[in-house]
TrEMBL record:
<keyword id="KW-0375">Hydrogen ion transport</keyword>
<comment type="similarity">
    <text>Belongs to the ATPase delta chain family.</text>
</comment>
<keyword id="KW-1003">Cell membrane</keyword>
<keyword id="KW-0472">Membrane</keyword>
<keyword id="KW-0066">ATP synthesis</keyword>
<keyword id="KW-0406">Ion transport</keyword>
<dbReference type="GO" id="GO:0045259">
    <property type="term" value="C:proton-transporting ATP synthase complex"/>
</dbReference>
<comment type="function">
    <text>F(1)F(0) ATP synthase produces ATP from ADP in the presence of a proton or sodium gradient. F-type ATPases consist of two structural domains, F(1) containing the extramembraneous catalytic core and F(0) containing the membrane proton channel, linked together by a central stalk and a peripheral stalk. During catalysis, ATP synthesis in the catalytic domain of F(1) is coupled via a rotary mechanism of the central stalk subunits to proton translocation.</text>
</comment>
<dbReference type="GO" id="GO:0005886">
    <property type="term" value="C:plasma membrane"/>
</dbReference>
<comment type="function">
    <text>This protein is part of the stalk that links CF(0) to CF(1). It either transmits conformational changes from CF(0) to CF(1) or is implicated in proton conduction.</text>
</comment>
<dbReference type="InterPro" id="IPR020781">
    <property type="entry name" value="ATPase_OSCP/d_CS"/>
</dbReference>
<dbReference type="InterPro" id="IPR026015">
    <property type="entry name" value="ATP_synth_OSCP/delta_N_sf"/>
</dbReference>
<keyword id="KW-0813">Transport</keyword>
<keyword id="KW-0139">CF(1)</keyword>
<dbReference type="Pfam" id="PF00213">
    <property type="entry name" value="OSCP"/>
</dbReference>
<protein>
    <recommendedName>
        <fullName>ATP synthase subunit delta</fullName>
    </recommendedName>
</protein>
<dbReference type="InterPro" id="IPR000711">
    <property type="entry name" value="ATPase_OSCP/dsu"/>
</dbReference>
């Protein structure tokens, strides 16, 4: 991903985001962008859309075929505009940038919760409430990862912050404190 690629992607994402804000469709389009991102990541469409031998018309046909009725007009228009300007290779990054903008506005952050056993919906909601406040967000989008090595308790990662309330984390801290006391 070249720097210019990222800059280009961000420009389109901001333009689309501003349209969405006017229409009140920020979170709807965010869901559509998840779809676009998946389409490009999972199906290796990235190389297809940046291929110079494939015509813009062919690219548009494939795109609208894959996204028909799944995304709004503003999204399709933005993607077509990117193809017209030979920026097909920036589409996945643009989707990612848009999602980031929407999450900023909605004061939502992605969080990974590591636990020994799967957490219930209720537990995840409670954790989201407590930790969203700690990081100045309204809510956290949780992904629960099972990690038996934790022994018990939880470890939570929000962005680059880690909250470690796991038993193994506590044992680790105790070991360090003992080592320091004996030094």
């Amino acid at each position: 991903m070249s720097m210019s690629n990222e800059v280009v992607a961000k420009r389109y994402a901001i333009a689309l985001f501003e349209l969405a804000e006017q229409d009140g469709t920020v979170s709807q389009i965010e869901k559509e962008m998840e779809l676009v991102k998946q389409l490009f990541q999972d199906n290796g469409l990235q190389s297809f859309f940046s291929h110079p031998k494939i015509t813009i018309q062919q690219k548009k046909a494939i795109l609208s075929g894959n996204l028909k009725n799944a995304v709004s007009e503003n999204v399709i228009n933005t993607l077509f505009l990117m193809l017209d300007r030979k920026r097909g290779d920036s589409i996945a990054e643009m989707a990612e940038q848009y999602i980031q903008l929407a999450m900023e506005k909605e004061r939502v952050a992605d969080a990974v919760v590591y636990s020994v056993r799967p957490l219930t919906e209720k537990e995840q909601k409670e954790i989201s409430k407590i930790f969203a406040e700690k990081v100045g967000k309204q809510e956290l989008r949780m992904r629960n990862v099972i990690n038996p090595d934790l022994i018990g308790g939880l470890r939570i990662r929000v962005g680059n912050q880690i909250f470690d309330g796991s038993v193994s984390g506590k044992l680790e801290r105790m070991k360090r404190e003992l080592a320091a006391a004996n030094a």
